[in-house]
Write a structure and sequence with these properties.
Radius of gyration: 17 Å
Order of helices and strands: EHHEE
CATH topology: Translation Initiation Factor IF3
Number of strands: 3
Largest sheet: 3 strands, antiparallel
Number of helices: 2
Distance between the termini: 15 Å
Shape: elongated
Helix content: 25-40%
Number of domains: 1
Strand order of the largest sheet: 1-3-2
């Protein structure tokens, strides 16, 4: 995977199209209460940091699986997007271009 359009030292032989992976996660009410307290005193919201790390890893894993199904051996131009799905739930979306490197 690369967030650039190419892989240094490698040539893209074929582009196999856009691949995606996503996950929708809901916030935990207990974490919301602790986050509210942290907002008062300041500091990292570790529960949310962990939630986002897990969501990114799962979205990437699903994107890579999509690329593998297409026969790709790399994904370039990887990007992330987020959106609110419902009250307290958000989607983390990973996408990129599946390619065959020579």
């Amino acid at each position: 995977m690369s967030n650039t359009e190419t892989i240094p030292g490698r040539t893209i032989g074929q582009s196999l199209g856009v691949v995606t992976g996503s996950t929708v996660r809901a916030k935990h009410i207990g974490k919301d209460i602790l986050a509210g307290l942290k907002n008062i005193v300041g500091g990292e919201l570790k529960g949310y940091t962990e939630l986002l790390q897990e969501a990114r890893a799962q979205a990437l894993q699903r994107m890579v699986a999509d690329a593998a199904k297409r026969g790709a051996n790399a994904v370039v131009n990887v990007r992330f997007a987020t959106s609110s799905v419902a009250g307290g739930a958000a989607e983390l979306f990973a996408y990129g271009t599946a390619v065959l490197l020579q």
